[in-house]
Amino acid sequence: MSVRGGRNVRRNFSRVVSRIAGPLTDRVVTEVLIIGEGYAVNLTPVDTSNLVNSRFRQITNTATGTVGVVVYTAAYAAEVHDAGPKNWKKAAAEDRFLERGFERDGRADIETHLARSYRV
Question: How many domains, in total, are found in the chain?
Fold first, then answer.
């Protein structure tokens, strides 16, 4: 018994893979960064707003995949992130705000978005 439609399957498979490996992944990584960053901003300590306003997103395509990073340019960002609990002026502020924004608070939304975006 012969199988029909093999050529169409190969053509469609190549089209879907090239779409996923190209612009779709760049868009999805950007959207994941926006989701996680939104949760992290709510947890970011604010005294002068310099820390919150010094952030930006960077996306890099490498040989092994697409990498997205949220960067804070304020010189003291690492010390605030890793300092441990303090008595911040903002009630919702926490230490390790990036980690908690992406991995704790935003995880469900990020996983849902990934599943919806890469649906074939």
Answer: 1
